[in-house]
Amino acid sequence: MTAYVATIASDRLTAGISTLGAELQHLTDRDGRELQWDGDPAVWHGRAPILFPVIGLLEGGHYRLDGTSYPMPKHGFARHATFDIAAQTADAVTLRLTASDETRAIYPFDFQLDIAFSLAGATLEVVATITNDGDRAMPASFGFHPALRWPLPFGQPRDAHGIRFDHDEPAPVRRIDANGFLLPEPQPSPVVGDLLTLRDDLFFDDALIFDALASRRVSYGAATGPKLTVDFADFPTLGVWTKPGAGFICIEPWQGFSDPVGFSGDIRDKPGIIEIAPGASKRLAMHIALTA
């Protein structure tokens, strides 16, 4: 099935969202300047994948649930699934994924995942609503993974860009090992005060994982010129990642992360997992705003 790209717009921004993975394809300002990575497959084909029902990798490519082992791809299956359009207006669109025989084979739950995109002025709101339509508690993780242009298209050089947190962030960060699993030892934070100055060498060992944050908002850009703020009040963890030398930086609100090294327990006991009660929903929102 060919993916359909839904376009929404405000007086300040235009966004395109694909039915394949409910993935944001582009985000442009009113002058047509692209704020998002273009998904060049020679570097990294992603643009803003949706991470559900797991984040990262599982030991052996499987998770254990109530005594049974199930396969699950990296970052889950939502990013490869075709969503339906549940509602659309000029400035908003909601995409929906529901359980199927295919998903139940690897994730034995009846769920509904809605990803709602809306534009108001210079702000893009993205709201994920995960609903448990089954009769038992449903374990899940969820993450956003937007790839923003680095440098932004406002004339400042790449090495002038940084991420400024709302508060000082002295707490250590977490890292993954060469196989993609969460290391137990915290690492010194590269944040100085409230500022993470972006350099390629920060990402030689993959993502920076902030799991002891004081902040729930960051501002990304150069010291002068327009910036992008990312608000993630509903998320306890933030991943920051790029491929060294690539033209993007991912600022990723997460609920959960990869398996810890050597983890062999039930998924319900995995750090970062939430459980959604039968008939209940979990709402997780992110806002990306263009600021002067």
Distance between the termini: 40 Å
- Give the uncertain stretches in residue-range form: none
CATH architecture classification name of the domain at 5-157 and 241-291: Distorted Sandwich
What's the Cα radius of gyration? 18 Å
Tell me about the largest β-sheet. Answer: 9 strands, antiparallel
β-strand amount = 35-45%
Strand arrangement within the widest β-sheet reads: 7-8-9-10-22-18-17-14-15
Count of helical segments?
A: 1
Overall CATH class of the domain at 5-157 and 241-291: Mainly Beta
Helix-strand pattern, N to C? Answer: EEEEEEEEHEEEEEEEEEEEEEE
Number of strands: 22
Nearest-integer average pLDDT: 97
Assign a percent range to the helix content: under 10%
Structural class: mainly beta
What does this structure look like?
There is one protein chain. The chain has 292 residues and is mainly β. It has a domain at 5-157 and 241-291: Distorted Sandwich (Beta-galactosidase, Chain A, domain 5). The protein is 1% helix and 40% strand. The chain has one helix at 101-104, and strands at 5-9, 13-18, 23-29, 50-51, 62-65, 68-71, 84-88, 92-98, 111-120, 123-132, 138-140, 142-144, 147-149, 161-165, 195-197, 208-210, 217-222, 227-231, 237-241, 248-255, 274-276, 281-291. Strand 19 (237-241) and strand 20 form a beta hairpin. The radius of gyration is 18 Å and the shape is globular. The protein starts with a strand and ends with a strand.
